[in-house]
Design goal:
Layout: E1 2-7, H1 15-25, E2 29-33, H2 44-47, E3 52-59, E4 62-70, E5 79-81, E6 91-95, E7 100-105, H3 113-133, E8 137-142, H4 166-176, E9 180-182, H5 183-187, H6 204-207, E10 214-219, H7 220-223, E11 226-231, E12 243-247
Parallel strand pairs: 1-2, 7-8
Antiparallel strand pairs: 1-12, 2-4, 3-4, 5-6, 6-7, 8-10, 9-10, 11-12
Helix pairs in contact: 3-4
Length: about 250
């Protein structure tokens, strides 16, 4: 099973890039974030991409998440829902036979840091519920926290910067402690150049001066069957790169 996640930073500006990515990668599950569009702003073909069950959850010009599930690997439309803590179109889950997969866009926290903390705390409770029930879970998306200093380029490290604060990082570790694994770090535990977001100025993306903000967190049993996890920095014009994880299921 191949799961991809990508903060597209505006789907209307990157419709063709998303279609090209789908055509090339053919993921079983595609999670998108920051779509910045309501359903009535999307073209008909995008709302029903050939070969995929599609679900779009967004508002005009801000936030928004989407989930796409391959009909070839999942012939029945999955059950989709929003946890109670969803606000500003930030999380949707799909219950699949292999696992429940969530597409998540955590608030940046710049305008309302307490709201970001509350969202992360609610994510922790969600992960705890799944751990207690023994149900496999995959959390995908732009979590807007760099786990450690290694996940931030040295030129971008700033004490107490939002996205690098100790309380945010502690919440990320608490979420992972609920039986989840940061799949990307399994394959590249010591890569100090592993980033998924680059500020859109001074040629930061080409120079790979960035932050790692986009993740695939998977239940341990699933993570043990992961075969690869890569970030595709060269793909698209978003300030984030897609992350693609594959599992031998």
């Amino acid at each position: 099973m191949k799961i991809a996640t990508w903060n597209v930073n505006g789907i209307r500006a990157r419709q063709a890039q998303v279609q090209e990515f789908l055509d090339r990668e053919r993921p079983d599950v595609l999670c998108l974030q920051e779509i910045k569009a309501a359903l009535d702003q999307l073209p008909a073909w995008l709302c029903d991409i050939e070969g995929y069950w599609c679900y779009w959850h967004g508002g005009k010009g801000y936030s928004g998440v989407a989930l796409h599930v391959s009909k070839a690997s999942h012939p029945e439309r999955p059950a989709l829902q929003h946890p109670e803590f969803d606000f500003e179109h930030r999380i949707v889950t799909a219950r699949l036979p292999q696992a429940t997969v969530a597409s998540i866009y955590v608030p940046n926290g710049g305008k309302d840091f307490p709201a970001k903390v509350r969202f992360l705390e609610a994510m922790d409770l969600l992960a705890l519920d799944y751990q207690r029930s023994g149900q496999p879970l995959v959390l995908c998306g732009d979590l807007n926290v760099a786990r450690t200093d290694m996940d931030v380029h040295p030129k971008e490290r700033r004490p107490n910067a939002i996205g690098q604060r100790p309380e945010e990082r502690a919440l990320m570790e608490r979420i992972l402690s609920r039986g989840l694994v940061d799949v990307h770090r399994v394959f590249e535990p010591n890569n100090t150049d592993l980033f998924t977001w680059w500020a859109p100025w001074r040629n930061m993306k080409a120079r790979n001066i960035g932050w790692r903000l986009d993740y695939v967190f998977a239940s341990e049993a699933l993570a043990q069957r992961a075969t690869s996890c890569v970030v595709q920095r060269e793909v698209g014009t978003s300030d984030h790169g897609p992350v693609v994880a594959s599992f031998d299921l």
